[in-house]
Amino acid sequence: MSGSPTVKRRRLSQELRRLRLLAGLNVTEAARLLEWDASKVTRMERGQWKLPSVHDIRLMLDLYRVTDESRREVLVALAREARQRGWWEKYQDVFRSSLPDFEAGASAIRTWEIVLIPGLLQTEQYAQAVWQAGQVLDQELIERHVTARLTRQQILMRENPPSLLALIDEAALRKQIGGPAVMREQIGKLIDMAARPNITIQIVPDTAGAHPALEGAFVILDFPEDPSLVYTVTTTDSLWLEKPEEYQRYSFIFSHVMTSALSPDESVRCMAVLRKLLEG
User: Do residues 119 and 189 share a domain?
Assistant: First the structure.
């Protein structure tokens, strides 16, 4: 099973909805028989819960006539595991979304960045320069943002890590965030990370011209047992997309942009050239 409580809650929600439908009940009927408010069943099926109650899950399994003991225990165990708290719970003042939680459960991550280096690949100094540029956070909170971002990156080093395919616009490499020394270190880290077997980095050169992903960055997350997700952000909000047509559209955009990217080997050579230019 994945290490993400949010992924487990999402899986449990989907399974509870499937079982209700198999039992031939609508939400109102299920809630009446359980003596609950209908909104409680709806929230559970939408994954809008933090700590699933094992007692409630057993009641629902009884109502939905799930009698197979092994099946019941799998779902009860899933509910228990979904109650666990990840390291990111300590940084609720930092994270705008459940991205680190979903990353922890993903088997494959595809990310497109047009202005910045992807967060999973940033150096400490680069990340600090990014947060300082906002000019709205005090230094203590900036340090918390940086620490949280570096902790996120540990999923790439764990046993059985997710695969990461990062498409990065050349403009992000040329933008001297933090100055030449910071960018030189940052590009060096990208070259080092590209050598890892689970990480592929491809640069979309300036010569690629216009393409469908010019409007902004996004992340596509694939899971071993669950539907994929697309994550995108604006200046003030973050957005999760999970409809099949939305996933297909972003997958198509990602694939289209990848046809304009340099190969992994060419990308490493490109980054080496850009780093060399910063040595002056």
Answer: yes
Pair (73, 169) in one structural domain:
no
Do 169 and 35 share a structural domain? no
Phi (first) and psi of residue 35, to 5 degrees:
60, 45
Could you tell me the residue range of the domain that residue 262 belongs to?
87-277
| 231-248 CB burial, b ≥16 within 10 A, e <16 | bbeeeeeeeebeeeeebe
Is the overall model pTM greater than 0.85, yes or no? Answer: no
Same domain, 77 and 209: no
Lowest-confidence pick of 84-98, 149-163, 210-224: 84-98
Domain boundary among 82, 98, 127: 82
User: 40 or 136, which is more confident?
Assistant: 40
Of the three residues 64, 82, 100, the one that is the final residue of a domain is 82
Q: What is the 3-state secondary structure (H, E, C) of 221-256?
A: EECCCCCCEEEEECCCCEEEECCHHHHHHHHHHHHH
What percentage of the chain carries pLDDT values higher than 90?
A: 65
How many other CB atoms are found less than 10 A from the CB of residue 132? 15
At residue 117, the pLDDT reads 97
Whether residue 91 sits in one domain with residue 78: no
Given this model, what pLDDT does residue 2 score? 46
Name the pLDDT band for 64 (thresholds 50, 70, 90).
very high
CA quadruple 195, 196, 197, 198: dihedral sign:
negative
Q: What is the CATH number of the domain that holds 53?
A: 1.10.260.40
Cβ neighbourhood burial of 113 (10 Å; 0-12, 13-18, 19+): buried
- Count of domains for the chain: 2
CA–CA dist 198, 110 (Å, integer): 12
Residue 71, phi then psi, degrees to nearest 5: -65, -40
**Strand, coil or helix: what is 108?**
strand
